[in-house]
Design goal:
Radius of gyration: 18 Å
CATH topology: Immunoglobulin-like
Structural class: mainly beta
CATH architecture: Sandwich
Number of strands: 6
Distance between the termini: 54 Å
Number of helices: 1
Strand content: over 45%
Helix content: under 10%
Number of domains: 1
């Protein structure tokens, strides 16, 4: 019985599904300038999100990856970029929580920030959709 239970427990490096941005090619419309920091004792990433498109966007979410020294993903977190909507060719300051790493004693060597999702905001008669 004990052997059967042990077979059900995943090996080290639990198989978590990797989160990818919902809209590939986001780099064409957005630029990010950020740095790692701390806020009230918690790790964060903070900086500017630039809307480099001629469109107004809203519902922007950021994906923060905690990376090991080899660039492998240790943990991920999705956060809203406060202050949506963003006017065309504008920038917005953001502070996003960094993901906490559950694999002790590992700590992130670095972070990676990307745009997870966003919506295009059309005129009064339109509905939002990605670019």
């Amino acid at each position: 019985m004990a052997l059967a239970l042990c077979a059900l427990i995943p090996a080290a490096g639990w198989s978590q599904q990797i989160i990818e941005p919902h809209q590939p090619g986001w780099e064409r419309w957005f630029k990010l300038d950020w740095e790692a920091g701390e806020w009230r004792g918690h790790p964060v990433v903070k900086g500017y999100l630039y809307n480099a498109s001629p469109k107004t966007v809203g519902d922007v979410q950021l994906l923060v990856d905690a990376l090991d020294a080899g660039g492998g993903i240790l943990a991920q977190k999705v956060s809203w970029a406060a202050g949506s909507p963003m006017a065309p060719f504008s920038r917005r300051y953001f502070v996003a929580d960094a993901p906490l790493v559950d694999i002790a004693p590992q700590q992130p060597a670095s972070y990676r920030v990307s745009v997870y999702s966003y919506s295009e905001i059309l005129g009064p008669r339109g509905r939002g959709r990605g670019f």
